[in-house]
Design goal:
Subcellular location: Cell membrane
Domain EAL: 24-277
Structural class: alpha/beta
Organism: Azospirillum himalayense
Radius of gyration: 21 Å
Keywords: Cell membrane, Coiled coil, Membrane, Transmembrane, Transmembrane helix
Distance between the termini: 70 Å
Helix content: 40-55%
Protein name: EAL domain-containing protein
Bound molecules: ligand C2E, magnesium ion
Length: 284
């Protein structure tokens, strides 16, 4: 009888709501085990200096590989991780994994800059700077090999927690980049409060370089502003030679995108490096 009542309850939901709710429940309960069961992987997408197309770094991007081989993209499970608080242990794992790989690259003679993404949730809780210091020390990685990417919304947060954390990271020598720059808030006042090393020009403006929209004008404005504020620029989502050429003419410093390399498992990235002479100047 209890079983029948359970079945009957489902009829209060519409089919779509029911499907979305059950997908979410599936994600929640399985994400809890993904970390413990080693189902998370950090893939690496190469980043290049426009000048000479020299490999200078990589962005670590999270992947969830299920035991049945299916891959769940971060866009699907990061929001669930943020809502459930699981982003704390997952984010800490990403930080440790990035440092472990950076150390391995150093040992192989490749001092590359490894960037990872931080969620706003990670910055609003105490202890992030301590965890960064812990992992750098655990793997003996110099702070200058690590870059943290945050979105504009994080920097709009005027709390002492966020500014205190950034001050400490800055003191340690960790680099800070603003991800998806230009898609968030219209106020740039936070650029006065936080010293930022790099602006990552959002892919939408890169696409706009060649599709006849105003994306090119926006990319140009971002590059000009970054230059006068002594920040570097990296264009995301560069897929064509035409886009690369346009960005080079505008004076963009670095690029990342399918044109020069997709995100790949670490072992593939090591093989990728072997095909591109990485130079010791990569990290200053
Ligand atoms: P993001 O940090 O802006 O990362 C760039 C996204 O663009 C990645 O998607 C990458 O695979 C994709 N991409 C790179 N080059 C190209 C290109 O040429 N064309 C196109 N169409 N796409 C390109 P991905 O890996 O699915 O990640 C999506 C987002 O998930 C990331 O956006 C980031 O916000 C978030 N994310 C990924 N890993 C982590 C993580 O470890 N922690 C947190 N908090 N968020 C993460
Ligand atoms: Mg990113
Ligand atoms: Mg981005
Ligand atoms: Mg993004």
């Amino acid at each position: 009888a209890a079983k029948e009542a359970g079945r009957a309850n489902h009829q209060f939901f519409t089919p779509e709501l029911n499907k979305r709710a059950s997908e979410r429940m599936w994600l929640e309960s399985n994400l809890r085990h993904a970390l413990a069961d080693n189902e998370l992987e950090l893939h690496f997408q190469p980043q290049f200096a426009v000048d000479g197309r020299r490999l200078v770094g990589a962005e670590g991007l999270l992947r969830w590989r299920r035991r049945d081989g299916t891959m769940i993209p971060p866009g699907q499970f990061i929001p669930v991780a943020e809502d459930t608080g699981l982003i704390q242990p997952i984010g800490d794992w990403v930080l440790g994994e990035a440092c472990r790989r950076a150390a391995d690259l150093l040992a192989r003679g490749h001092p590359l800059l490894i960037a990872i993404n931080l969620s706003a949730v990670q910055l609003r809780r105490p202890g992030l700077a301590d965890r960064v210091a812990f992992w750098l020390d655990a793997y003996k990685v110099p702070a200058r090999c690590l870059e943290l990417e945050v979105t504009e919304s994080v920097l709009m947060d005027e709390s002492d927690m966020v500014s205190g954390t950034f001050a400490r990271l800055r003191e340690m020598g960790v680099a800070l980049a603003i991800d998806d720059f230009g898609t968030g808030y219209s106020s740039l006042s936070y650029l006065k409060r936080f010293r930022v090393d790099k602006l990552k020009i959002d892919r939408s403006f890169v696409t706009g370089l060649t599709d006849g929209s105003d994306g090119g004008a926006i990319a140009e404005a971002i590059i000009g502003m970054a230059r006068s504020l002594r920040m570097q620029t990296l264009a995301e989502g560069v897929e064509t030679e035409e886009q690369f050429g346009g960005l080079a003419r505008l004076g963009c410093d670095q690029i990342q995108g399918y044109l020069l390399g997709r995100p790949m498992p670490y072992d593939d990235f090591v093989a990728f490096i072997a095909r591109h002479a990485a130079t010791p100047e990569a990290v200053g």
